[in-house]
Automatic annotation (TrEMBL):
PROSITE patterns: PROKAR_LIPOPROTEIN (PS51257)
UniProt-recorded name of the protein: NAD(P)/FAD-dependent oxidoreductase
Lineage: superkingdom: Bacteria
UniProt source species: Clostridium thailandense
Organism classification: Bacteria, Bacillati, Bacillota, Clostridia, Eubacteriales
Length: 368
């Protein structure tokens, strides 16, 4: 069987590893000159977003033999709104590294691979279709799916981030919802060592936001972050992504082409998480090629998750700074504190977000 994988990122490499485990040797094409050849980035996964799975890393290892080592477990998420600070405490997820770092998730996956990767590839999709029986599109965005008329784009985002130096605890992450400074968006700080972290802002490209000056947004937020952390964070690297597409394919397979990772629509519009689902689509597409299970059936829950996450996005956008303040303030309320920590922990399989969905839908309808 001749299989081409276009893109050696999280989904493409997970697909390749799973194919190899089932004795299919794929040909992998990567446009960059090595795996993870981009800015170093601290990313995170939260157990509450992957329910009923409790612990994503344990699940990948035990169910699919894919082993990934995080930088640290998240033991505290500090949540900031315009006027309040709250926190969620306990083992709630993982922090990991992406990009140009020997322990980035993509580099860890590459080490589990036997096949060689064809780097600096200039192969176009059409060429691959002619030369291979199956093509797996894993290029990390919906561009090909859009071209093939197989994609529903729900929003695009502007993202600006920096690597900052300071004193950090690698088990503590921060997130900000402050619409006065970042309208309808959010920001986060994820440390990937005790000395380095990523500070990032992200907001949707709605007409009112496009008019805004990103330098002003960034400068205002940077001051807020420095004050909140009590540090004069030193910026050592910067990146900016414009029109980052969030959407989903209509069909996960067309003819002999499989759409996986962000090409499928794994990036959740609610809060921008996509790693875990990307890895799953890689594994699932390989399962289909190996005749173990059908890709279309396996990705059904991912379609559902995506649509639920879109409800969450609209819900967040319908809030204002006052309501955000009220929610954040209550994170540490004596009455709810323990309950919130418990439902967010990776020791429970409670599907809290699913249960809160009807409320979010109702609220969105009211706001309409
Ligand atoms: C700034 C930022 C922060 C994020 N933070 C988080 C987070 O904290 N938690 C989380 O879960 N998710 C996060 N995500 C989302 C997550 O990173 C993605 O969902 C995930 O990486 C998608 O995996 P993928 O395999 O689709 O793409 P990638 O892992 O990006 O891999 C795509 C690969 O394809 C290659 N490629 C592209 N075009 C071609 C071509 N024409 N030919 C050959 N190769 C090609 C690329 O070079 C790359 O190596 C974040 C995303 C961004 C942008």
């Amino acid at each position: 069987m001749k299989v081409a994988i276009m893109g050696a990122g999280l989904s493409g490499l997970s697909c390749a590893i799973t194919l190899e485990k089932n004795n299919i040797i794929p040909t992998i094409f990567e446009k960059r000159n090595c795996v993870g050849d981009r800015f170093v980035n601290g990313e995170a996964t939260f157990s509450i977003l992957n329910r009923p799975i409790k612990n994503d890393l344990k699940y990948l290892e035990e169910s699919y033999g894919i082993s990934l080592k995080a930088t640290d477990m998240i033991k505290k998420l500090v949540v900031h709104s315009k006027n309040e600070i709250g926190s969620i405490d306990g083992p709630i997820g993982y922090i990991n590294i992406r990009g140009r770092h020997e322990n980035s998730y993509e580099c860890q996956l590459e080490r589990q691979l036997k096949s060689k990767i064809n780097f600096n590839s200039t192969y176009e999709y059409g060429q691959l279709c002619k030369e291979f029986e199956y093509v797996i599109l894993a290029t990390g965005d919906g561009a090909y799916a859009v071209k093939l008329g197989n994609y529903r784009c729900d929003l695009t985002c502007t993202i600006r981030g920096a690597t900052v130096e300071g004193e950090f605890q690698t088990s503590i992450a921060h997130v900000w919802f402050n619409y006065d400074v970042i309208p309808k968006g959010y920001a986060w700080l994820i440390p990937f060592s005790e000395k380095e972290a990523n500070l990032v802002i992200a907001y949707p490209d709605y007409p009112n936001n496009i008019k805004l000056d990103i330098d002003t947004i960034w400068d205002n937020f940077y001051d807020i972050a420095c004050t909140a952390l009590g540090e004069n964070l030193k910026i050592t690297d910067k990146f900016e992504i414009t029109q980052y597409i969030m959407g989903i394919c209509d069909k996960p397979i067309i003819d002999n082409t499989y759409f996986i990772g962000n090409c499928f629509g794994t990036i959740s519009p609610g809060l921008g998480f996509g790693q875990f689902a990307s890895i799953l689509t890689g594994i699932y597409s390989a399962y289909d090629l190996c005749n173990l299970e059908k890709y279309e059936s396996l990705v059904k829950p991912l379609f559902k998750n995506y649509n639920n996450s879109l409800v969450l996005r609209r819900f967040l956008e319908n809030l204002n700074d006052n309501s955000l303040d009220t929610i954040i303030k209550n994170l540490d309320n004596k009455l709810f504190d323990e309950l919130i920590n418990k439902v967010c922990s990776n020791t429970t399989e409670l599907e809290v977000l699913k249960n809160l969905l009807p409320f979010a839908k109702f609220y969105n309808t009211l706001k309409k």
